[in-house]
Specification:
four-stranded mixed β-sheet; alpha/beta; seven-stranded parallel β-sheet; Rossmann fold; 16 helices; 11 strands; binds NADP nicotinamide-adenine-dinucleotide phosphate
Length: 389
């Protein structure tokens, strides 16, 4: 059997670590490259296990400290910075590039893999939120493909296989509702960082955990679904499903609802993204249907959780609004993680930044990343102003 090769961008994160567990258990896979940002000790441990010939890290300081942590006799090429991540994403002999970098930093590596017509196993939803308009046509031109790793999109990807767009009434993304499901705005005023980091169903990186608590994660996923599957925003619905057993659904025009069910375990969509269109034995626990007592569904509360509404609006508006939404969210979440702002201020800050934005037609990744940089700067200034009060 032929050996398949994967590159894991963001190997030291929650998705990256689980992807390596999957690869270890799948037959005939090896790792061609892996990356982290600054967490070089973890990357060194992982690299010692898998021995990929190439690694990438944030900068030369991280590279020299990585070298000191590698075992004697193992001397991989160490690439650095944004160009290093792009080079790693574009290795010629690689079958699947898993992009599990967090945030807008994932866009350029996604584009680099797409330019070579690769299979992109995409966890980095921000690539599509800010760059869907250029990433999707590029993939069509080069014959590349995205297999979504986000569990909702992975579910919809499987449900849509072999169907015509005219058969579909709606895509229905499920949302757990996060740790604050059912909270009023008044009770959200008192929540702490520790409360927000305590997600009921999923163990994830800190940024996406906070995005789940504000419902911005679902908002970003709505924009991701729009670009991935080519449906208008009117045909993308969100339903709160606290058990996270149904990962998403499609509604057909004849009234049939099709759903994908499984354990809330990211290793399942990660495995699928590697093996598609084939299947291999599960590396995770399977779902025992008889152990499920409740499957419940509710409308999302967009009054207490305005981030979802803001994301729908930004997606519909286009013209740079999704870039502003994403960049201001990244900066506001980071300020919340540093305890500089309160939970409710995250959405307030994003709304302010969206209101100040002047619509702009973005055709190139450099234009997108310039707007991303400007928005980060303005959001930081705004946070400095409100947190000084
Ligand atoms: N976690 C989940 O269950 C889940 C589910 C669905 C989708 N996703 C999506 O998957 C992506 C990764 O999420 P995660 O939870 O795995 O994040 P995470 O645990 O925070 O890991 C992020 C990874 O990206 C690296 N990184 C951080 N900043 C970077 C930068 N500026 N340039 C290059 N690399 C950078 C980190 O390296 P260091 O360790 O060195 O910082 C780490 O390897 C996100 O887009 C998220 O929305 C995650």
């Amino acid at each position: 059997m032929t050996i398949k090769k994967a590159t894991i961008l963001g190997a030291t994160g929650s998705i990256g670590i689980q992807a390596l567990e999957v690869i270890e258990k799948l037959e005939n896979w090896e790792i061609a490259g892996m990356s982290c940002f600054q967490n070089v000790e973890s990357l060194a441990d992982q690299a010692a296990r898998f021995r990929p010939p190439r690694l990438a890290v944030a900068d030369s300081a991280a590279a020299s400290s990585l070298k000191k942590n590698l075992p004697a006799g193992y001397q991989p090429d160490i690439l650095t910075g944004s160009a290093g991540y792009e080079e790693l994403a574009a290795l010629p002999d690689v079958d699947v590039v898993l992009n599990a970098i967090v945030g807008a930093a994932g866009l350029k590596p996604s584009l680099a893999a797409a330019r070579l017509g690769k299979r992109l196993a995409l966890a980095n939803k921000e690539s599509l939120v800010i760059g869907g308009r250029i990433l999707m046509p590029l993939l069509r031109d080069t014959g590349g493909e995205i297999i979504p790793v986000d569990s909702e999109h992975n579910a919809i990807f499987q449900l849509l296989e072999g169907r015509q767009q005219e058969e579909i009434e709606n895509l229905i993304l499920t949302a757990s509702g996060g740790p604050f499901r059912g909270y009023s705005t008044a009770s959200l005023e008192k929540v702490t960082l520790e409360d927000a980091l305590d997600h009921p169903n999923w163990d994830m990186g800190s940024k996406i955990t906070i995005d789940s608590a504000t419902l911005m994660n679902k908002g970003l996923e709505v924009i991701e679904a729009h670009w991935l599957f080519g449906f208008s925003y009117d045909k993308i619905k969100v339903v709160v499903h606290p058990q996270s057993i149904i990962h998403s659904l499609i509604e057909l025009i004849d009234g049939s609802l099709l759903a994908e069910l499984g354990q809330p375990d990211m290793k399942i969509p990660i495995q699928h993204a590697f093996t598609h269109p084939n299947r291999q034995n599960a590396v995770s626990d399977k779902l025992a249907l008889t152990e499920i007592t409740d499957l419940t569904f509710q409308e999302p509360d967009t009054e207490s959780f305005p981030a979802l509404k803001l994301a729908f609006q930004a997606g519909r508006q286009g013209q740079g609004y999704p870039v502003v939404l994403n960049a201001s969210n990244e900066v506001a979440v980071s300020a919340f993680l540093q305890k500089r702002i309160a939970f409710l201020e995250i959405s307030y800050i994003i709304e302010e930044m969206l209101e100040k934005h002047q619509p702009v037609d973005l055709k190139e990744s450099d234009e997108i990343l310039e707007l991303d940089r400007q928005t980060r700067r303005k959001t930081k200034e705004f946070i400095d102003k409100i947190s000084d009060k």
